[in-house]
Design a protein that fits this description.
14 strands, about 325 residues, 2 domains, alpha/beta, binds adenosine-5'-diphosphate, about 25% strand, Alpha-Beta Plaits, binds magnesium ion, elongated, Rossmann fold
């Protein structure tokens, strides 16, 4: 897997006192959908702006599409949807796309064709003659996404693409992202919407207080907490519990509460002796199945074990107000 984004030790301090990034290492492979997850103020947009050369890092080494971070020429191969973007309200959806196409140096005929193709992709062909001022937030996000694709990018960087988009619009965006992946593009997206990332991303990183705390596939990140769980209708009586203990069940079976036994295995056959024992004692089994923590569970664990500074603040300095609304 060749890395499309490979960065190490990214630091950014705003106004000499707000430590937005405190040494971020990140690697995104070719053709992946990679999700950067974190609470407001974690530093996600700051990292994106550094990759997009909008702001310069205080410290950073690494590459994007094989070129040193900060290289302006690489931007020709990247599509970017900024957070809180504001395209001029007097332009129509089509004009926005053609405008960005022109800025990317695409010839007039080609950019008209590309704009039509992308308006259809994002489901905006019926509104292409209407001005952005009359669009809903969700419609503006769709046009924003289309705009990011005008230059046929190898890497698509989306900062909160589903911000303000209703559930059916979010599903449409997820489908578009899968389509882009099928075309071989790499997608890097920021989101604070956990379920969103879980559904669409190949790999995720969780960022808190300017540091990436964990990154990997959702399966990798949840592997040691996944397994079969049996719950019973009534608390398991003492005599059944001790018989279960004497079974020497494999894969570290553990009675995690009065009516729950958890196994660290994904092999159903290995949990059958426990079920047999419970049934022998006429204990009613309420549920039995494979469970893995959700991204939200994982996220809460990471955030709750984070003992970093307050968001963005260097100790002793006043913390920024912007963090709360960004
Ligand atoms: N231009 C700026 N000047 C000063 N502080 C900023 C600026 N932009 C962001 N910050 C601060 O940096 C931290 C990270 O912000 P941001 O990257 O926007 O986080 P996220 O996108 O994860 O919500 C926050 O504390 C925010 O207030
Ligand atoms: Mg942000």
């Amino acid at each position: 897997m060749s890395a499309v984004i490979d960065i190490q030790g990214v630091e950014k301090t705003y106004k000499r006192r707000i430590k937005a990034l405190r040494g971020v290492d990140l690697s995104v492979g070719q053709g992946e959908i990679f999700g950067l997850l974190g609470p407001n103020g974690a530093g996600k947009s700051t990292l994106v702006k550094i990759m997009m050369t909008v702001i310069s890092p205080s410290k950073c080494t690494g590459t994007v599409l094989g070129e040193k971070i900060g290289d302006k020429n690489t931007l020709q191969q990247i599509g970017y949807l900024p957070e809180h973007h504001r395209f001029p309200a007097y332009l129509t959806g089509r004009q926005v796309l053609e405008y960005f196409g022109a800025m990317s140096g695409i010839q007039r005929k080609q950019r008209k064709a590309k704009a039509s193709e992308l308006l259809e992709l994002v489901g905006m062909e019926s509104w292409h003659k209407d001005k952005l001022g009359s669009y809903s937030k969700g419609m503006r996000q769709r046009v924003g996404l289309a705009q990011a694709l005008m230059n046929d990018p190898k890497l698509v960087v989306l900062d909160e693409p589903t911000d303000g988009v209703d559930p059916s619009g979010r599903r449409d965006i997820r489908n578009i992202l899968s389509h882009l992946k099928d075309e071989g593009r790499t997608i890097f997206l920021n989101s604070h919407l956990l379920s969103e990332l879980e559904m669409v991303c190949d790999r995720v990183a969780i960022m808190v207080h300017g540091l990436v705390r964990t990154q990997g596939t959702i399966d990798e990140l949840t592997a040691d907490q996944s397994g079969f769980v049996i719950t019973t209708k009534e608390p398991i009586p003492e005599h059944a519990s001790s018989e279960l203990n004497s079974l020497s069940l494999p894969e570290q079976a553990e009675q995690t509460s009065a009516d729950t036994i958890a196994f660290k295995t994904d092999d159903a056959t290995k949990v059958q002796p426990a079920i047999d024992t419970l049934r022998k004692h006429n204990i009613v089994i309420q549920s039995a199945g494979f469970k893995r923590p959700s991204l939200e569970d994982l996220f809460m664990q990471v955030v709750s074990t984070d003992h970093g500074d307050k968001p963005g603040a260097i100790s002793g300095a006043r913390s920024s107000k912007k963090g709360a609304k960004s």
